[in-house]
Amino acid sequence: STMEETDREAVATAVQRVAGMLQRPDQLDKVEQYRRREARKKASVEARLKVQTIQSQLDGVRTGLSQLHNALNDVKDIQQSLIDVNKDWRQSINTIENLKDVKDAVVQHSQLAAAVENLKNIFSVPEIVRETQDLIERGELLQAHRKLMDLECSRDNLMYEQYRMDSKNTHDMNLIHTYFGDMQKLSEELAKQLWMVVQRSLVTVRRDPTLLVSVVRVIEREEKIDRRMLDRKKQTGFIPPGRPKKWKEKMFNILERTVSTRIEGTQADTRESDKMWLVRHLEIIRKYVLDDLLVAKTLLDQCFPPQYDIFNKLLNMYHQALSTRMQELAAEDLEANEIVSLLTWVLNTYKSTEMMGNSELSPEVDVNSLNPLISQNVVDQLLSKYMSTLTSNIIGWLRKALETDKKDWIKETEPEADQDGYYQTTLPAIVFQMFEQNLQVAAQINEDLKTKVLLLCLQQMNSFLTRYKDEAQLYKEEHLKNRQYPQCYVQYMIAVINNCQTFKESIISLKRKYLKIEMEDTLSSSHTSMDATLDIIAKEGCSSLLDEVFMDLEPHLNELMTKKWLMGSNAVGTICVTVEDYFNDFARIKKPYKKTMTIEAHRRVVVEYIRAIMLKRISFKNAEERKEGAERMIKEAEQFRFLFKKLAAGSGEDTEGLCDIIEAIAEVIKLTDPSLLYLEVSTLVSKYPDIRDDHIAALLTVRGDASRDMKQTIIETLDQGPSQPNPNYVPIFKEITVPTLTVPKLLK
């Protein structure tokens, strides 16, 4: 810094001076003298500096005093001047009052200047109106609007000047308004033209996009004027009549109305004129909306300024109009299939690639951000209405299907056979085709509805099968009243039995196709109960068919074990032929049931044969007759064995054992040595432990040579014997009753 430099210089100078004084050794003695001399010099310099400082301060004070004195004089002068001004101003107030006329003249001058400026326009108003009218009619909208703007500008300026001059003078305002009256009509006329173009914008944009651009430019100009007029109103309070026109807002309102009309107008038919009216209506809507939005995106968007956001505005308008239309449709009294059509369209088609999800509409249209067309509440109401309508429809269809099937049962022609030759009726096919159709329809809507419909179908199927069982029972009872009628009773009963198998398979395939694995449990109980009902129908059907056989066999069974039989009747031959004849028809029964039936027929033939023995219709006179009778029994057992082996061919059933019983009984009858009778009977009892005492008594009666005591002894002794039945033996004697005879007859 400067101070430090000065210090350093001072020190250097001092060093130099001291060095000058002390050059010789003798000068060292004078150091004290030098020091005093330097101290005196320093004191004298300091005193001089002090005097100078005081002098300069005094000069400053003097100057200050002199300036204050001048300022005081100036203030006095200003005060005097203000007094003079005040005096002059008071004198001239009256003169200013007299200048008001000049001010008014100035205002009037500016108005007249405006009038003169507009005079040319004012005089030519009628002519400009005519020209503008022509331009509008020729469709030259931009030029027409340019002239209209000039006219409006003239009128608005005149009105504004009038307003500034005298805002309360309505008479003059009205005069101007009336003079420019035709101009208002022109504005309306032009607007009408614009709105026509806007209404047809989606068509115009393809044919004549420049026309649409002109319309948008006119609207933009009007918007600008609106804004200017509103700004002026804020400052001056004046706004010309008819402002703001708000043509942009009107344009959007027109577009909105056009969109609504477009969607409402697509319903060409009613239910009365066309069953498919709704499907057609929805398809036309889909096509129109998709086409319109594609045009809007590719062409329309370019005709409007970006801030109009025209595509998104239109998208919202279409969505809103569709929503309104769908709600109207949902409120109508729709049939079940119509509800499905509507819901499929609303929930699926709308957001699919066939419509809003179309790749050409993305990314502007994002289906995930579209609101639902109808509320969940309305969807639920429609679904519940659909389910209740469907329930009553299914009940009706099933009832009708059964009635139709019953009519077939009394036909005089055999039922149809499937490709494997099994008799059947169309009932299962009709029922499951109907279920399939309804499930496919439900699947179009959603998974949940599909499951509900499946549950409904199976639930109705359950009660339907109970009716089917009752009808089959009635069919059998009616037939028993007159066995000649219906003519094809056996064949139709076979068809009913086979239908049970078809129903079982169809239920399984329906569940496999339409039910998710995790839902299986909810259906298992109803499935079990349907299977049980079907088994009962099939079992009762089979048993009624066997009853048929045995009713025909009755006269021949009555001949067994009689004198006529012993003489050589052909009862068993006829029995075998009849059974075989019936089984030619029974071959048309499906496997599981046919197998059971063959076993049951075999068993029943053997039971009836043994019952014939136990009826004691014959009592052999001697060993000769016993031998002949026993041999005939063995031969007939062989005939039965041969017959049933043939009938069971391929089913792998071993039914040999049944005919063995007849042979075992024949052995007891054939025995020539009465002393071995007990042994023979005990062998029989050990093989067939359900033989009762009355069976043995009857058997010994037929044999004809056992005394009452002998019978008694054999029976009493047998009770102690052990039994060794075949483990596969199904008790057969327990269903054979023996007629009780009076005592004298027994002793004979």
UniProtKB/TrEMBL annotation:
Keywords per UniProt: Acetylation, Cell projection, Cytoplasm, Exocytosis, Golgi apparatus, Protein transport, Transport
Subcellular location: Cell projection, Growth cone; Cytoplasm, Perinuclear region; Golgi apparatus; Midbody
Annotated GO biological process: exocyst localization; exocytosis; protein transport
Secretion signal, residue range per the UniProt entry: none
A GO cellular-component term linked to this record: Golgi apparatus
One Gene Ontology MF term: SNARE binding
Family classification: Belongs to the SEC6 family.
Protein purpose: Component of the exocyst complex involved in the docking of exocytic vesicles with fusion sites on the plasma membrane.
Subunit structure: The exocyst complex is composed of EXOC1, EXOC2, EXOC3, EXOC4, EXOC5, EXOC6, EXOC7 and EXOC8. Interacts with EXOC3L1. Interacts with BIRC6/bruce. Interacts with MYRIP. Interacts with SLC6A9.
Name used for this protein in its record: Exocyst complex component 3
